[in-house]
Amino acid sequence: MRHTNASLFFTHGMTMIEILTVLVILGIVIFVTLPHLTQSKANNELAAAKAKAIQLNYAKDSYISVVGLDTAQSAWLSLPGNIVTGQADTSDERLYNLIKFYLPTGTAATVLNTADGSPSYAVPGYRYSFFSSGNANPNLITLPVMLTDPNGNLVAY
Predict the structure, then answer these.
(1) Domain hosting residue 118, numbered range
(2) Largest CA distance in the chain
(3) Taking a C-beta distance cutoff of 8 angstroms, is the pair 84, 37 a contact?
(4) How many CB atoms lie within 10 A of CB 138?
(5) Domain total for the chain?
(6) What 3 state SS string does 51-80 have?
(7) Is 125 left (phi over 0), alpha (psi -120 to 50) or beta?
(8) pTM of whole model > 0.70?
(9) 4-21 pLDDT per residue, tens
């Protein structure tokens, strides 16, 4: 019977040492690359959070351009009562509702921030906030959106 090179290749199996060597090499490659992949994910989330903060600032600028600075400022500082609690609503959610229609199509969510991880505009772990009426600056609407990271530190963008 005549043997070809192909038939010889398939009749010879791999030894246990060869299989273990391949597994050890794969383990080393995974061990070396895994920290870089997790850091890359964190960097991508930070970049997305900064981009969304910039979008919020552009939406505020568009809102000011459409309704005028005086009208926008008075709406920003007005304290409409909350029907449920009977108290003034100065939340970031109310301010977000003023400008969310000026965000690019498909990016505006119904809420700005959530603590429970349900869908929101914010990147998970990051929080956006606006300067509220507690600040003494008369042009609060022109101040940039504040972005805080998962540790509660302000993020420059």
Answers:
(1) 48-148
(2) 97
(3) no
(4) 9
(5) 1
(6) HHHHHHHHHHHHHHHHHCHHHHHHHHHCCC
(7) left
(8) no
(9) 655 555 556 778 899 999
